[in-house]
Write a structure and sequence with these properties.
Blueprint (H helix, E strand, L loop, with lengths): L5 H20 L8 E3 L5 E3 L23 H5 L9 E5 L3 E5 L6 E6 L4 E3 L4 E2 L6 E2 L2 H6 L4 H4 L7
Antiparallel strand pairs: 1-2, 3-4, 4-5, 5-6, 7-8
Length: 150
Amino acid sequence: MFTSSPTRRFAAVAATVVLGVGVSGCSGGDDEAQASDASGTSTVTVTETASNPDPNPNPDPAPQPCTLGTLHESTGLEMLDVMMYCDGAWMRAGQAATDHVRNFSWTGETWVEYVADGRSKPTGYPCYSWDRLITDGVPEALRDQLTVCT
């Protein structure tokens, strides 16, 4: 009479599983993974891909002001390629690797240049009247980047 130990039973089951997977791996050109067990049944894995619908099917037609694309819609501003500040009402943008920097305010449809009050001495950079900056509501974060006329 034959008796089996737990070690022999484990080895037999492991060999059957490994053999079954190895045989099914050599059996075809299908893209689906299959594994057979000792009883001859197969397991097939099917992967489905679901597409997510557009989370905003009715986008707001209002322009997105804090983009260089929106700034470039104004003629003559295409060379400005670096945005240094934008809060949706005020923007500071410039041309990379130059001192060409300009300031703008948003009209609700387009950016318009916020014209300087003068030029600083001795640099010749644009400068702004402190009182005008406050009256026009230029935010502190942008005022900190501007030269005040003396």
